[in-house]
Amino acid sequence: MGLKLGHLKAARVALSLVFFGLTALVFLDLGAVIPPAFTGGILYLQFVPSLLAFVHGAALGAAGWLFVAALTVLFGRVYCSTVCPLGTLQDAIGFAAGKRRRFHFRPGGTLRYAIVAVTALLLIGGSGLLLNLLDPFSAFGRILTDLVRPTVIVTNNIVAAALEQFGHYAVFRKQWAVLTPLAVGVAATTLVVVGWLAARRGRLYCNTVCPVGTLLGLVSRVSWLRLGINHDRCSKCRRCERVCKAGCIDLENMKVDTGRCVACCNCLAACPEGAVHFENRWRRVPPVRADQGRRDFFLHSGVSLLGLAGLVETNATVLQSKPTTIPEAVTGPVSPPGSVSIERFTSICTACHLCVSVCPSRVLSPSVLEFGPSGMMQPRLNFHASYCNYECTLCTQVCPTGAILPLAPEEKKRTQLGVARFIKENCIVLTDNTNCGACSEHCPTKAVRMVPYPNLLNRPLVIPEVHADYCVGCGACEYACPTKPFKAICVDGNPVHAKSKKPEPKALEIKIDASEDFPF
Questions:
Q1: What stretch of H or E contains 497?
Q2: Burial of 393 by CB count in 10 Å (0-12 exposed, 13-18 middle, 19+ buried)?
Q3: Rounded to whole angstroms, how far apart are CA atoms 26 and 208?
Q4: Are 247 and 101 spatial neighbours (Cβ–Cβ below 8 Å)?
Q5: pLDDT value of position 83
Q6: pLDDT of 311 above 50
Q7: Which run of H or E residues covers position 38?
Q8: 453-504 pLDDT, tens per residue?
Q9: DSSP 112
Q10: Do 52 and 184 fall into the same domain?
């Protein structure tokens, strides 16, 4: 029996490492070698993204959460011990902290139910902020995207620079990501809190803070196979209790709190007498007793929100003769292509930052307050950092929640995310009486066109003119505009994405002088 139980724990550890490694690879794929379809398969079983995608799309392909729920009904919280990457990260931190830790039984409190209920109430009220902060997959994604990935890029570029000195170019330099202080701060805080709890108290985060753990814990109370303790075999050596990172083994009463058990199988492998075993609980249904903790929670719980202040993007460097003075004052942010509308996007996105990781141009950045307080850290298009590639659809192919729907390349080229707005008072043509044309040169649809500009010096100047019907809001014009600190052209985000007109190609007018020897 000991050998079999040891194999069961080893199988769980191996499976959790596979899920952890594949999920981490999705976020840290610098070479973009993972096909988007494969990404969807890797993330299929992530509970919250799958649930949100199913609720808003009712598609069978987004029903991974149902599979997780079915596994929980049968075998308990195997999601927490194998599939959840944040759970595996906690196990790794706990393992690194050393084996001197000793766990003990901790009675379940009401805080976890309070957090779930407040999260649900905020969702009903239209705010997904708390869910975004606490969802384990999204929290893990932010840690990788905002903390680990930049470190990997720096390391990659240092290695590439070193190899270039010897004439080797096997390693390519990667574009640096624009970091948002708020997103980095939240990711760092999450890592510190989760890491400290894991090093000191095992899976306390999973059983107190994580809403997914609490929900699956409720489901696991009716699971088919649950851990039990054989009174006759148990010698109360407490080996099982000392390795139970969930603190759910009560040897005084010879019970296991199945609602908090994360199915790690540590106790099964540690018990020398085989007293800890699986029991078929469906043979006999015990009487249902009311959970007084949940009653107390609804009487005493409240909502406490933390105000977070953002930093304003500024750049004091000027390239023109004098700094511009008219702020862009855009009417609204630009949500990613495929998000359909800002309202829909902010209601589904969990801010996992997977789209931020795969974006090749690094135009997607975590927001501060652009989407409002409830949309903090949800990605937006930051045209001061870059622009949306006209041909690219990567972000539309990897979103696990369905907040960004798939778009075909031709459809994406006609999707109007916003409309460019020209601020004449900031333009170099007006302020310096010199030609520029950077915005028009970079516009892929030629929605920005240069027209003659009458001036007092009678110079042959041209100035931008925006044809809004052809604009797709890609931000290439805003990014290319050289004026500082305020741009002469900016993109106002569409609350609901529209469809632009298809650019009409113009025939080239080629004048041929037939008198020359080679008129071609």
A1: strand 489-499
A2: buried
A3: 28
A4: no
A5: 95
A6: no
A7: helix 36-42
A8: 988 888 889 999 999 999 999 999 999 999 989 999 999 999 999 999 987 7
A9: H
A10: yes
Same-domain pairing of 33 and 150? yes
Range of the domain at 400: 342-499
pLDDT of residue 505: 67
Backbone angles phi, psi at 78, to 5 degrees: -70, -25
Tell whether 296 and 354 lie within a shared domain: no
Can you read off the two tokens belonging to residue 348? 């589904």
Residue 323 burial (CB count, 10 A): 15
Residue partners of 21: CB distance under 8 A and separation at least 6: none
Closest by CA position to 404, among listed 362, 364, 344 = 344
Burial class (CB in 10 A: 0-12, 13-18, 19+), 192: exposed
* Closest to 349 in 3D by CA, of 292, 403, 303, 273: 403
The three-state DSSP-derived secondary structure of 429-495 is HHHCCCCCCHHHHHCCCCCEEEEEECCCCCCCEEEEEECHHHCCCCCHHHHHCCCCCCCCEEEEEEE
Q: What is the DSSP letter of 136?
A: H
Which residue in 367, 418, 364, 368 sits closest to 386, CA to CA? 364
On whether residue 107 sits in a domain, the answer given is yes
pLDDT at 314: 37
CA–CA dist 436, 60 (Å, integer): 52
- CA angle in degrees (0–180, nearest 5) for 404-52-382: 35
Instruction: Let me know if residue 20 belongs to a domain.
Output: yes
Q: 3-class SS at 79?
A: helix
Considering the domain architecture, whether residues 273 and 356 belong to the same structural domain is answered as no
Residue 382 lies in a domain: yes
Is 243 within a domain?
A: yes
Look at residues 274, 300, 326 and tell me which one is the last residue of a structural domain. Answer: 300
Residue found under tokens 């931008």 = 464
What's the chain's average pLDDT? 85
Helix, strand or coil for residue 232?
coil
Q: Are residues 373 and 242 in the same domain?
A: no
* Residues 494, 391 share a domain: yes
- Write down the residue that tokens 């949500």 correspond to: 335
Q: State the CATH number of the domain containing residue 346.
A: 3.30.70.20
Three-state SS string across 160-202, please? HHHHHCCCCCCCCCCCCCCCCHHHHHHHHHHHHHHHHHHHHHC
Distance CA 11, CA 163 (A): 40
Asked whether 217 and 259 are in contact (CB, 8 A), the reply is yes
Report pLDDT digits (tens) over 63-99.
889 999 999 999 999 999 999 999 999 999 988 887 6
In this structure, the number of other CB atoms found within 10 A of the CB of residue 511 comes to 5
CA distances from 334 to 116, 354, 412, 453 (A): 31, 18, 15, 30
pLDDT for 413: 94
Domain total in the chain:
2
Report the number of secondary-structure helices (H) and strands (E) in the chain.
23, 10
